[in-house]
Design a protein that fits this description.
The structure is a homodimer. Helix content of chain A is 36%, strand content 25%. By secondary structure, chain A is an alpha/beta fold. Chain A has three domains: 129 residues, 3-Layer(aba) Sandwich (Rossmann fold), CATH 3.40.50.720; 163 residues, Dihydrodipicolinate Reductase, domain 2, CATH 3.30.360.10; 78 residues, Alpha-Beta Plaits (2-Layer Sandwich), CATH 3.30.70.260. In chain A, strands 7, 8, 9, 10, 11, 12, 13, 14, 15 and 16 form a ten-stranded mixed beta sheet that branches. Chain A is elongated.
């Protein structure tokens, strides 16, 4: 089989240029590995005349991504524009309708429209692949879809937004408050045009929803992800968590329980000596747990030209080799409707309170917790130091609803200063 | 496509029984994911009447694995007997000759006969897959073959023998000498029937040679792996390395240089705070570095029923889905002959010497190192404590040949007690 596989690439930012570089620079290697040449037929982007560090003159040009997606000389439409709707979605739909395979890095589009697109791909009998949409260069989608296909997956976890992990580890390392590090990250160009996508956990939540669909064989349910950003993580909590042997990560957790799937993306304490706890800077990590394999940990760069282009090219090579796997692991029509767990499963929690220096204050807190069935695993009270005394509590596993009720009462009693902080602890 | 995929499973030890359990227990899931049922047609092992915790009565039985491999009702021959030659090799050859796909966990067979078997598979036009042969449940073969297919791989590293990592971390944790922990591991049943396969680095060397073939597109070259076991790692070195910020791992490294590929499996110092350095117990880790993706780290259980069966089933699912990838990533005939690097590339080294309490002793050592062009990065001399003083030296990168020459001279001088220890340091 020496028929070339012809790509149409929409979006020529960092990742698009990276893909062009690999196709140009590794042509022989790709042909040897795929059994056929990989060629670029045409490309397109918003601006034509811009130096992207690659020679685009051999390729056709399309201003309109829909036209690019439908070109006769394109076998695989590579969508690297981003945006959940608009041209990205319209062009992917057009490509699928025209019977083209699609490779995309677009997590927002898949998180919001994954089911419809998967059904369109199945109807057309073409692959729709998206390794680059989740955790950059880490081949975690492939691991879940294929390598671990013999497992009933029980839990997927991940630190999947490098910017957030950078901010949290930088706060800890430099002892700086969130606002200062956020401004640093902004100045360094680490943040999306809308920073809420990063620090609000939305981008990472998109990725979790995608992995979760594969893991549990149900329709992508981004709306079902409990989202909490890192904006309110304080340097105090980072320090105090460290005192107790934990680090705070923006952690995504999707797990299957008896009554449905729980998905959350929120600041979470993990043991400092666990692989997740040891993760520094912008690196990503995905943890997959299956009934047969136990725990698999995958770690690597979550963004950037090379890693993301590597993921795109892995998908392109699969298509060139004729490997076809259902979009989310099973035919889209058979994906179960999202079944959200009615009640959140119990977790250990970290609580931080400030107590005024009054006799019996600590006993009162412990009593309220006890009245809600929450037992204390460890507690540490610091010096009053002239003012309020920080108190740290690590609870035994308890349900968030019980904890909320208890915290509501604790927040109301007069010797508690400010609002108590509560963060989940994830055993890993 | 609802034609079942029919397996013939040879070898019903832990892994074989694990595969049967998954096929039986996850039948619906496997059918949904693969688009067709996975069935077991026949099985075989040395002993028929033994309780393996699974019901084998629905399946055909073959005493002779070659006969099993050739059965008309077998589509995929699953070889889980082990042994580089003998029945394993004969039956895999028979299966390929009969046009059956093969899945195997047999690292020794692939390390020694991988090229001939890959050519046989290509000639027959059938897949030969072996995820379970390397690092148990970690989908690292898939990552290299497929997920990272867009990369020129520059280096592959791995801790791929759980028993050795158990022994080394147990020595460190309990402060016990090698011989004691070796006997413990023996009593616990952690070692192969021939323990040299484990502690001599042979088993891990087989795995490295397999990954290396895929990574660098050359024929499997187990003979080209520089092998050193862990038998001579002392608790002293583990402690001293720790003092300098390192841990000792049985580390495999395969890297491509200008003049060929270097492969080694030997006790190596890695930074204590790196993912490799943080690896405890029997867990495995594979690190893959590519020109586009940067560094990817994969971690998981390297052995055991569930993890290994998970890897076997990943391969089975790929075959059921019709995914065909060349055995070592490119057609076997086009794999380059093994090109071994003529000279080993420079590495930082850890040296441990014992010096008698004589004036100028340390200066003499430093002078000899300097005369061989070896410069010292860090040095630490401990108390003489009445007798010989341990001296630790971390060198800047130097070539092993230069170091050997220097150590030869240092060993000869009278104030050096015993033989100097030298271990490579791998920056990770």
């Amino acid at each position: 089989m020496t028929t070339p596989l012809r790509l149409g690439i929409a979006g020529l930012g960092t990742v698009g240029a990276g893909v062009v570089k690999i196709v140009q620079g590794q042509a022989d290697l790709l042909e040897a590995r795929c059994g056929r040449p990989i060629r670029i037929a045409a490309v397109g982007a918003r601006t034509r005349n811009r130096d992207r560090g690659v020679d685009l003159s051999p390729y056709g040009w399309e201003d309109d991504p829909v036209a690019l997606a439908k070109r006769d000389d394109v076998d695989v439409y590579v969508e690297l524009m981003g945006g959940s709707d608009g041209p990205a979605k319209a062009s992917v739909e057009a490509a699928l309708a025209a019977g083209k395979a699609v490779v995309t890095a677009n997590k927002a589009m898949l998180a919001l429209h994954g089911q419809a697109l998967a059904e369109a791909a199945d109807a057309a009998g073409v692959p729709l692949r998206f390794e680059a949409a989740v955790a950059g260069g880490i081949p975690c989608v492939k691991a879940l879809l294929e390598g671990l296909a013999g497992n009933r997956v029980t839990r997927v976890m991940g630190v999947m937004n490098g910017t957030c992990n950078y901010i949290l580890t930088r706060m800890e390392g430099a002892g700086l408050p969130y606002d200062d590090v956020f401004r640093e990250a902004l100045d360094l160009g680490y943040l999306e045009a809308d920073p809420t996508l990063d620090v609000g956990g939305i981008d990472a939540g998109h990725k979790l929803a995608i992995l979760s669909a594969i893991a549990f064989g149900q329709r992508v349910d981004f709306e079902g992800v409990t989202l909490q950003g890192i904006e309110r993580v304080s340097i105090d909590d980072i320090r105090r968590a460290g005192d107790m042997g934990y680090r705070i990560k923006l952690l995504g957790v999707a797990q299957a329980g008896a009554n449905g799937v729980e998905q959350s993306m929120r600041p979470t304490l993990v043991p400092a000596d666990s692989p997740l706890g040891q993760l520094e800077g912008a690196t990503n990590m995905v943890v997959i747990e299956g009934d047969a394999v136990g725990q698999i940990v995958l770690r690597g760069a979550g963004a950037g030209e090379g890693p993301t282009a590597s993921a795109v090219m892995g998908d392109v090579c699969d298509i060139a080799r004729g490997c076809a796997v259902p979009v989310f692991g099973v035919p889209a029509q058979t994906l179960a409707p999202a079944r959200r767990a009615a009640t959140a499963s119990p977790h250990a929690h970290y609580l931080r309170l400030s107590l005024r220096d009054e006799p019996g204050a600590l006993a009162r807190v412990a009593t309220i917790l006890g009245e809600h069935g929450i037992s204390i695993d460890r507690m540490r009270q610091y010096d009053h130091d002239g003012g309020d005394a920080p108190v740290l509590i690590v609870t035994h596993p308890c349900r968030p609803a019980e904890l909320d009720a208890a915290l509501g009462r604790i927040g109301d009693v007069p010797f508690v200063a400010g609002t108590p902080v509560a963060l989940q602890i994830q055993g890993v």
